[in-house]
Design brief:
alpha+beta; 5-stranded antiparallel sheet
Length: 79
């Protein structure tokens, strides 16, 4: 089973990498697999690679769901 997490691109670097953020955590990702990425885009990231760019409606819904799952998981670990 593979899992991709939604990240928002903050900054794109000349080497094809980017700084992205998800849930307050920043990381560097690769953009080789998505077409025309831009700062502010939300992408799905798996194993350090952006694998899909999401449109605004998709990204807002997915981020809300991702945050809900994250809160539920954190509550389960505290129990």
């Amino acid at each position: 089973m593979c899992l991709a997490a939604p990240y928002t691109i903050k900054e794109i670097f000349p080497d094809g990498s980017a700084r992205a953020v998800s849930g307050g955590v920043e990381t560097d990702i690769r953009l080789d697999l998505v077409e025309s990425p831009a700062s502010g885009d939300t992408v799905l990231v798996h194993a350090g690679f952006a694998i899909q760019k999401l449109d605004r409606g998709e990204s807002e819904e997915l981020i809300a769901l991702w945050n809900e799952v994250s809160r539920a998981a954190a509550a389960a670990f505290r129990a």
